[in-house]
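Late entry, written up from scratch paper. The run itself happened at the end of the previous shift, but nothing got recorded in the book at the time, so transcribing now.
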Amino acid sequence: MEAFNAASIAIPFPYTYSITNVATFTPFPPQTTITTTIFPPTPPTIITTSSSWLDSRIWSRLPQQLLDRILAFLPPPAFFRARSICKRWYALLYSNSFLQLYLQVSPRHHWFIFFTHKTPNTNIIYKNHINNNNNNNGQESTRAYLFDPYEVKWYTIPFPLIPLGFSPATSSGGLVCWISDEPGFKNLFLHNPLVGSVTQLPPARRPRLFPSIGLSITPSSVDLILAGDDMISPYAVKNLTAETFHIDPSGFYSMWDTTSSLPRLCSLESGQMVHSNGKFYCMNYSPFSVLAYDVSSNVWWKIQAPMRRFLRSPCLVESKEKLILVAAVEKSKLNVPRSLRMWVLQGCGTQWVEIERMPQQLYAQFEEVEGGRGFDCVGSGEFIVIMIKGVDNNNNNNKGLLFNIERKRWVWMPSCPSNLSCGLNHHDDEINMEGDLHGFAYQPTLAAPVTALVQQLALPFQSFNE
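Output as recorded:
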């Protein structure tokens, strides 16, 4: 790993809830020499060691409330290792009292979640696969790659409950939203990767192909939007409308109401939208601009992008409730060096201010690795990940840069485990699938109370494997 140096929100929840469809989740294994940790199918063997300071007469007398509070502060890897200590700690995921304490005191961890996908001609399509040639009894081989920017470390986690024909679309509040791949009326569900819970949403009301998707989840509300790619015929789509889903604890809910029409001649790239301060944003192409949607006023508008004629691979990210545009700048006809820059949208909602420019020495390295293939960006907390598209066939590594906005620090990320021995299994007709990664901001959490509200509206959950 190379470094390049330039110059607890406590949310008490007022009502009870239940965690359903919890899959058996085993603790993290002991750290190995590789920066990859895989969630194993069976708990590891626990080796008990004696130490002078581990006096059972002292530790056994600690109040249970104090122990629970300590466990609630643990980061996810440490928490799941601790669950192998005893039956009571293992059962904490099923304890409402502990989960309520966890929601109040646990610090917020800004991680990233990545999926390996095949890049088709026009849209990002994710595939799940069934592997009948190994010892997993035909279970889906879908897995995700969690990246901890604080420790600069990768983890892998399988998704045994994810059905065929669904793709990860966006993430918020510790939940990943999956959407059906088939064109038509979209089906969606919310999935908590850590505990395996799945909550189905009511189906959307308009047929679409690959709409842009935005999601904002708080402990007590859900806002979800599907925009564009309206199927006006079996052979044609247009960016005409958007529809929203909303629910909150006050009793107000909106089940896929059609919002105002999209701006004329807009050209959305199918993918996720970014949420910031009650608004959803997405990139608009030909020429570059930003589409914005205000949830409260139900209004769409366009925001002109900075240096729109000279941008390459523009991406929108959210960082601490600020909207940031990240793009490479190439002004071939002017005496301006190529660079990668970041702009933040000002409070007025129309002006951009440049806040960061990649050091020229580092950009020369980045440009050589990227080779014109393009890149994707995703922001989480004070971190921004810039993931280069495509795979370098010489070393077969996924290259990514991690930028800490507060410390102004650039770090080359270690190789993702998708290219190690734990790589995905593929069908014979898709053995050419490369290790491209597409990621989302992710806040690991043991509980998402708002899913209880969604379950009151949605149809009873049925296994997708039937």
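The longest strand covers residues 311-319.
(Scratch paper discarded after transcription.)
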